Amino acid sequence: MRLSFLTLQRGNAVRDALRHKSEPRPRPQDRTQSVQNGMRRRASHDR
Q1: How far apart are CA 7 and CA 5, in angstroms?
Q2: pLDDT tens column, 1-45
Q3: Up-side HSE of residue 26: CA atoms within 13 Å toward CB?
Q4: pTM of the entire structure?
Q5: Per-residue buried b or exposed e for 20-40, using 16+ beta carbons within 10 Å of the residue's own CB
Q6: How far is CA 12 from CA 5, 9, 15, 31, 44, in A?
Q7: Spatial separation of the C-alpha atoms in residues 36 and 21, rounded to whole Å
Q8: How far is CA 11 from CA 2, 17, 29, 47, in A?
Q9: Which SS3 state, helix, strand or coil, does residue 1 take?
Q10: Virtual CA dihedral for 6, 14, 26, 35, nearest 10 degrees?
Q11: Helix, strand, or coil here: 23?
């Protein structure tokens, strides 16, 4: 069971890496937006 789970994880990682290579890179402003969303989400948890 454990071995098959690790194998599945490795397969997903390889597929994700290939997909990311073929996808265009995100624009810097998109990355900034996601960072701001993450900071806002984290701040709401800290309250």
Answers
A1: 5
A2: 566 767 777 778 888 887 767 666 666 666 676 677 777 666 555
A3: 9
A4: 0.29
A5: eeeeeeeeeeeeeeeeeeeee
A6: 11, 5, 5, 23, 32
A7: 25
A8: 14, 10, 31, 39
A9: coil
A10: 10
A11: coil
